[in-house]
Design brief:
- By secondary structure, the chain is mainly α.
- It has one domain: 3-Layer(aba) Sandwich (Rossmann fold).
Amino acid sequence: MLVDTSVVLAYLSGGEPSSADAEELFDGLVGTGRNAASVSAITVAEILVRPFRTSAAAVAIAEGFLRHFADIRIVPVDYEVAREGARIRASTNLPMPDALIVASARVADANVLITSDRTWRKRAGDLASTMTILELPT
């Protein structure tokens, strides 16, 4: 499975409607080693923006998330992901960061993409036939 930025941010904030589900996902499934998970390098960048605006301590918390869940694979944005992201953006009009996250899932052969973004499934087009898009409640 590949986990979208919205789910990671819900986990880190603890105060969003989907935070409890994100906690169950990370602490109950990923943290126990029962389920392999990936995040895009785009997600890593996105989860660090607010902490960099706030403080070094906030950056340490966000980076601590990645170290704590050491089994989370970070999918790099290489040529293959960039190309697939461009194709997805062209066919779905998803914003480029979202298209790159979806592309990361496809290139990493993830069969499940977990998000809190309600628009992805409607805009996914042919993506829904190649992977399951699970939406956490918001």
